[in-house]
TrEMBL record:
<dbReference type="InterPro" id="IPR038592">
    <property type="entry name" value="CheD-like_sf"/>
</dbReference>
<protein>
    <recommendedName>
        <fullName>Probable chemoreceptor glutamine deamidase CheD</fullName>
        <ecNumber>3.5.1.44</ecNumber>
    </recommendedName>
</protein>
<dbReference type="GO" id="GO:0050568">
    <property type="term" value="F:protein-glutamine glutaminase activity"/>
</dbReference>
<keyword id="KW-0675">Receptor</keyword>
<comment type="function">
    <text>Probably deamidates glutamine residues to glutamate on methyl-accepting chemotaxis receptors (MCPs), playing an important role in chemotaxis.</text>
</comment>
<dbReference type="GO" id="GO:0006935">
    <property type="term" value="P:chemotaxis"/>
</dbReference>
<comment type="similarity">
    <text>Belongs to the CheD family.</text>
</comment>
<keyword id="KW-0378">Hydrolase</keyword>
<dbReference type="Pfam" id="PF03975">
    <property type="entry name" value="CheD"/>
</dbReference>
<dbReference type="InterPro" id="IPR011324">
    <property type="entry name" value="Cytotoxic_necrot_fac-like_cat"/>
</dbReference>
<dbReference type="InterPro" id="IPR005659">
    <property type="entry name" value="Chemorcpt_Glu_NH3ase_CheD"/>
</dbReference>
<keyword id="KW-0145">Chemotaxis</keyword>
C-alpha cells in the first residue's frame, strides 16, 4: 500500500525527496529523508496503523504552481492527508510529528522559520494534534519514520555546512584618489 509520489513500492522502505510523499501500513516499512530548511510532516492514524510522510520546500509557491506542486506546503499537506484517508485512516484520529525548518545559511533567508510556522498553523487549522516536533536550529536532520506505529528517529547531521552570509556594502558613486 505504499505510495511515493506516483510510484508503488509494495511494502518496501522508501527514501523521499522534496515534493514527494509516502504512505504505508506495513510494520517493516521505513520512510526516510534528509532536511535542511525544508519540512517533513509525519502523520499517522494510531488506530488504523497507517501513516505517511511528506517533504516540502516552502509554505507557498508562485500563484500559478500552488494548485499542482507538492514542493509547497499547502498542497503537500493536503495530498498526504487525503491519501491517508483514502487508504483507511480517519481524519479525527490523525496525529502529527514535524521536523526541519533549520537556518542553513545565516542571514540569507528566513525560509526555515516560515516553514515551521506554516506547518504548525496548518495542523492547528485542520485539528490534527502535533504530538512531537523538532523545528529550527542550524543543523540538517536525517529522519526515519515508521508509518505503522508513528515512531520517528532523528539524527542531526553534524557535517552539514552552515554558512554565514556577510552583507556586501554597496559601492558608492564617490571616487577617491590617492
Amino acid at each position: 500500500m505504499t505510495n511515493v509520489s506516483n510510484k508503488i513500492l509494495q511494502g518496501k522502505s522508501a527514501y523521499i525527496t522534496q515534493g514527494e510523499f509516502a504512505v504505508d501500513c506495513s510494520p517493516t516499512v521505513v520512510i526516510s529523508t534528509i532536511l535542511g530548511s525544508c519540512i517533513a510532516a509525519c502523520i499517522w492514524d494510531p488506530d488504523a496503523n497507517i501513516g505517511g510522510m511528506n517533504h516540502f520546500l516552502l509554505p507557498n509557491g508562485p500563484q500559478v504552481l500552488e494548485s499542482d506542486s507538492s514542493s509547497f506546503g499547502a498542497n503537500a499537506m493536503e495530498v498526504l492527508i487525503n491519501t491517508l484517508i483514502r487508504s483507511g485512516a480517519r481524519k479525527n484520529c490523525l496525529r502529527a510529528k514535524v521536523f526541519g525548518g533549520a537556518e542553513m545559511c545565516r542571514g540569507l533567508t528566513d525560509a526555515g522559520s516560515r516553514n515551521g510556522l506554516f506547518v504548525l498553523s496548518y495542523l492547528e487549522r485542520e485539528n490534527i494534534p502535533c504530538v512531537g516536533q523538532s523545528l529550527g536550529g542550524n543543523q540538517a536532520r536525517r529522519l526515519e519514520f515508521y508509518p505503522e506505529s508513528g515512531r520517528v528517529r532523528q539524527k542531526l547531521v553534524e557535517d552539514a555546512c552552515v554558512t554565514e552570509v556577510i552583507p556586501v556594502v554597496p559601492a558608492s558613486n564617490e571616487l577617491e584618489l590617492f
